[in-house]
Design a protein that fits this description.
The complex is a heterodimer. Chain A is an all-alpha fold. Chain A has one domain. Chain A contains eight helices and no strands. In chain A, helix 2 packs across helix 5, helix 5 runs antiparallel to helix 8 and helix 6 packs antiparallel against helix 7. The longest helix of chain A is centred in the middle third of the chain and has 30 residues. The two termini of chain A are 28 Å apart. In chain B, strand 1 and strand 2 form a beta hairpin. Chain B folds into two domains: 147 residues, Rossmann fold (3-Layer(aba) Sandwich); 63 residues, no CATH class. Chain B is globular. Chain B has a six-stranded mixed beta sheet with strand order 5-6-7-3-8-9, with helices on both faces. A four-stranded antiparallel beta sheet of chain B has the order 11-12-10-13. Helix content of chain B is 31%, strand content 29%. The relative contact order of chain B is 0.14. Chain B is built from ten helices and 13 strands. Classes of the chains: A mainly alpha, B alpha/beta. At the A-B interface, helix 1, helix 3 and helix 4 of A face helix 1, helix 2 and helix 3 of B. Chain A: Keywords: Membrane, Transmembrane, Transmembrane helix. Chain A: InterPro entries: ABC2_memb-like (IPR025699). Chain A: This is Transporter protein.
């Protein structure tokens, strides 16, 4: 799995460019000002970079190449989900650290932000990965944008409820649902990968 | 003899194409060429052997493993080049090695670097910026740098200039010097296979027309060049295929059937395959 992660890190480094700057700005704003859009964008943008690695894997023929290497196909999927979780974790840590240093936001808001990041990041990955694996990055691009819009709208609809004490369980329920979705998504992705044939063009 | 590859009653269909391999094997320590026109089933066969496609029925065994798609350990011993499967285009040779070092237990960095020097490949240049020939050379360097005992190569010399092809054939000839090393190589450039192979299998429209030891195959047939008049004096059943010329006719015949009154010569593999394709049936 280390080899697959290293390959993805190489690719992400080469494709990050301006995106890194955008991630840094959103992370800074999320840590200093808070706000749903800043928080979600600071999480989704690194994940979009990881999706880019999937797109390259498919267009370069690396997906097929890796399937012929001495890995199990399960390992290939494991590395992708591990990378996604790593990126979500990293974005949580960065925003939390910025928030702590800037001391502009109360602690409960920073914790709320971390929960939001995990929840949306997990949903984003859980829905998109199997779609990209099954239909290819190009074909699933529409779904990918759709998922992003739906998640953002969903988040916006829920944000007025954030301070509402009548639904404190939301902070627990939504991440739990996200974890369940992530597990289902992983199982589905492993199954797609195991049955995938590389007949080529 | 011990087999590096065994296929029995393997069927694979997708779309209108059907691959039907009744019986096929590659003996350990030999170089086996897969010959056939585009679309004859060479790449499909190779992808089945690498676990990139799954057979609809039949049995496949590679280095003793009959579940190659799930057998990571056996794949440590296989080097490959296959159509539509490649290294990440944005990475350079040095980064690719950093990744593959973590993949192969026997990765030999010194040998890899020596091959890159020999092939005059720029290690800092992104793979996508390489020419077709350079890409194949890098893939070959990867296939060789973990000391695999079996190479499965799909059209490694296709699209290359004669010099680059010769260089690759030379490297593969060195690889085969070890008696435990086996190569399955597909190509429609039969002259390359003629230089390298011990055995050839001719695929046509998804089926094996014949498998034969190369020298034995070339020894079995002769090309007779004669006049139309003399052709009339010959046994028509002994003429396996014919090619019409302006003043003469070229006939494919079994060596033992060539009459004493005509001149004949040995064919090269390409000529033989073309004429046998016209003949139909089996060898």
């Amino acid at each position: 799995m280390n080899a697959l992660l290293l390959k993805d890190l190489f690719l992400m480094r080469k494709r990050s460019g301006i995106m890194l700057l955008a991630i840094a700005i959103f992370a800074f704003l999320a840590g200093v000002q808070g706000g749903l859009v800043n928080t979600i964008m600071a999480t989704m943008m690194p994940l979009m970079l990881s999706f880019t690695t999937l797109a390259y894997d498919q267009s370069d023929g690396w997906e097929a190449f890796a399937a012929a290497l001495p890995f199990s196909r399960k390992h290939i999927i494991q590395s992708k989900y591990f990378l996604a979780l790593l990126l979500i974790g990293l974005s949580i840590v960065v925003i939390f650290a910025i928030g702590m240093i800037a001391r502009a936001l109360p602690m409960h808001e920073l914790i709320g932000s971390a929960i939001t990041q995990f929840t949306f990041g997990a949903f984003f990955v859980a829905i998109n990965y199997p779609l990209i694996l099954k239909f290819g990055f190009e074909k699933s691009r529409l779904y990918y944008i759709l998922v992003m819009v739906v998640l953002m709208s969903f988040g916006a609809a829920l944000s007025p409820l954030q301070g509402n004490n009548s639904i404190p369980s939301l902070a627990f329920v939504l991440p739990s649902i996200a974890v369940v979705c992530l597990i289902i998504s992983y199982t589905l992705s492993v199954s797609i990968m195991k049955n995938k044939e590389f007949s080529g063009s | 003899m011990d087999s590096a590859i065994l296929c029995s009653q393997v069927k694979k269909s997708y779309g209108s194409f059907i691959l039907d391999i009744k019986d096929f094997s590659v003996t350990r320590g030999t170089v086996h060429g897969l010959i056939g026109a585009n679309g004859s089933g060479k790449t499909t066969t190779i992808k089945l052997l690498l676990g990139l496609l799954f057979p609809d029925s039949g049995e496949l065994s590679v280095l003793g493993s009959n579940r190659i798609a799930n057998d990571a350990e056996v794949r440590q011993n296989i080097g490959f080049i296959v159509e539509d499967a490649s290294v990440p285009s944005l990475l350079n040779a040095s980064e690719i090695a950093a990744v593959l070092r973590l993949v192969y237990d026997n990765w030999d960095q010194d040998y890899y670097e020596a091959l890159l020097r020999q092939f005059q490949l720029d290690v800092k240049k992104q793979y996508r910026k390489y020419s077709r020939g350079m890409k194949v050379k890098l893939q070959l360097a990867i296939a060789l740098s973990h000391h695999a005992s079996l190479l499965i190569l799909d059209e490694p010399t296709s699209g290359l200039d004669p010099l680059a092809r010769d260089e690759i054939i030379t490297i593969l000839s060195e690889f085969r010097e070890d008696e435990n090393h086996s190569i399955l190589i597909s190509s429609h450039i039969t002259s390359d296979l003629e230089k390298l192979c011990d055995y050839v299998t001719f695929l046509e429209q998804g089926s094996i027309r014949f498998t034969c030891e190369k020298d034995e195959l070339l020894e079995q047939y002769r090309l007779v060049k004669t006049t139309h008049q003399k052709e009339l004096d010959m046994d028509s059943d002994a003429i396996l295929a014919r090619r019409e010329g302006s003043f003469q006719v070229e006939l494919l015949m079994k060596t033992e059937d060539v009459p004493a009154f005509v001149e004949s010569r040995r064919l090269n593999l390409e000529e033989l395959i073309i004429l046998l394709s016209k003949k139909g049936g089996t060898v």
